[in-house]
Write a structure and sequence with these properties.
The chain has 233 residues and is of the alpha+beta class. Helix content is 27%, strand content 42%. The chain has 7 helices and 12 strands. It has a 12-stranded mixed β-sheet with strand order 7-8-9-10-11-1-2-3-4-5-6-12. Helix 1 (2-23) packs antiparallel against helix 2 (27-39). The longest helix is centred in the N-terminal third of the chain and has 22 residues, at 2-23.
Length: 233
């Protein structure tokens, strides 16, 4: 009987979300409908690219409840390198080469050279955890997904799909971004595309979301070095 009860709840929630989307008449209503649609899921796959003059970051991520994995490529000038972020069991783990450890993660060059290629563990009690875990779990991804200030509606065709979007302003570490998040123009307003522009530094970001509710499997590395050891604390 519990399965039937859950099924009824899921169907009712989906119907309610769709009704809100179709009835949306204001940016706030659309934002609420998109947030409800995303929050009713438990995982997502997303691919994002961010660029600014001389800089490029590509991130392929799978995030679920309390866990996630991000596979990252970083380019700066003529240098590039890979990095990986894992969130599992209440801890974060990072790994990269000497370039990414000192240019994407906040290690100095001697630390980056010493720990290149090794897993570094970061407990949730560490001051470094929040930055590492940002957008690397489903809850953090959804909480950061939609703008909340100076909202407006946008109609567009995105990746060949008719879309309705909510555009607004986001403050990110003192930098103002104009962000637009798109959902299908009809049906459940599940976000599938996000674009952000930081005009002051000529930076742009694009993210595509798909494969909602697929299982996300993440295992902690067998061996890792505590961040306190890396930083000499």
């Amino acid at each position: 009987m519990r399965r039937i009860g859950v099924l009824v709840l899921v169907v009712a929630t989906a119907a309610a979300v769709t009704a809100v989307a179709l009835a949306a008449r204001s940016p706030k209503q659309l934002r609420a409908a998109m947030l409800a649609a995303a929050s009713s899921r438990h995982s997502v796959h997303y691919v994002s690219t961010s660029s600014a003059p001389g800089h490029f970051v590509r991130m392929v991520s799978d995030v679920g409840p309390g866990r996630g994995i991000q596979r990252i490529t970083v380019r700066k000038g003529s240098h590039s390198g890979p990095a990986t972020v894992l969130i599992v069991g209440g801890s974060g783990y990072i790994r990269g080469n000497a370039f990414t450890l000192s240019n994407y993660f906040p290690l100095d060059k001697p630390q980056a050279r010493r720990y290149a290629g090794k897993w570094i563990s970061i407990p949730s009690t560490s001051g470094a955890y929040a930055a590492v875990a940002a957008d690397a779990t489903f809850a953090s991804f959804v909480s950061d997904l939609l703008p909340s200030k100076h909202l407006g509606l946008v109609r567009a065709t995105v990746a060949g799909r008719k879309a309705l979007g909510v555009r607004g302003v986001v403050d990110q570490r003192g930098l103002e971004l104009t962000e637009t998040v798109y959902a299908p123009a009809a049906g459940t307003p599940l976000p599938f595309d996000e674009k952000a522009v930081a005009a002051r530094i000529r930076a742009t970001s694009v993210a595509r979301m798909s494969r909602w509710n697929e299982p996300v499997h993440v295992a902690a590395p067998a061996h890792s070095v505590p961040i306190s050891t890396v930083l000499g604390q």
